[in-house]
Specification:
The protein is 35% helix and 17% strand. The strands form two sheets. It has a three-stranded antiparallel beta sheet with strand order 2-1-3. A three-stranded parallel beta sheet has the order 4-5-6. β4, α3 and β5 form a beta-alpha-beta unit. The radius of gyration is 18 Å and the shape is globular. The mean pLDDT is 91.
């Protein structure tokens, strides 16, 4: 999926050199547990194939990127982790984060939380939130409608 109105924003981010993108991906023609898969360079996905997980080289790069981090906020799995054929990248990142010593690891989002749970790594994380979009909005400093409603001065009665 592409959001055409955000392409220029993405280009500017990539130009900074601070954004890491996949260098290899696991591909298949269909999202199915018995699908035939291949690992290819991220820019080499053939027509008719889908990128469904990060590859092992990307998992290593992403892990190295956060190796010295004091805080890691993870929002969104690396692939279609619900299907084992496309779960390895997500599992590797979750395993790495669960083993980070001295770091605060925050998992934001229902899918990321489900992945961490699937791999039995909940105890290795500092905090797990099912509110992915809401977590990001909170960190941006936006007012969350639920919090606003709970802290409103006016009392609302329900009949």
């Amino acid at each position: 999926m592409v959001e055409p109105d955000r392409v220029d924003d993405c280009a500017r981010l990539l130009e900074t050199g601070r954004v890491k993108v996949p260098v290899d991906v696991v591909i298949a023609r269909e999202i199915a547990s018995d699908a035939s898969t291949r690992i290819v360079g991220a820019r080499g996905i053939p027509h008719g194939w889908k990128g469904l997980d990060i590859g092992p080289e990307t998992a290593a790069i992403f892990s190295d990127t956060v190796a010295d981090a004091a805080t890691v906020l993870w929002n969104g799995p690396m692939g279609v982790f619900e299907i084992d054929a496309f779960a390895e990248g997500t599992k590797e990142i979750a395993r790495y984060l669960a083993g980070l010593k001295g770091a605060t690891t925050i998992i934001g989002g229902g899918d990321s939380a489900a992945a961490v749970s699937k791999f039995g790594l909940e105890k290795g994380m500092t905090h797990i939130s099912t509110g992915g979009g809401a977590s990001l909005e909170f960190l941006e400093g936006k007012e969350l409608p639920g919090i606003v409603a709970l802290t409103a001065k006016e009392k609302v009665s329900v009949k």
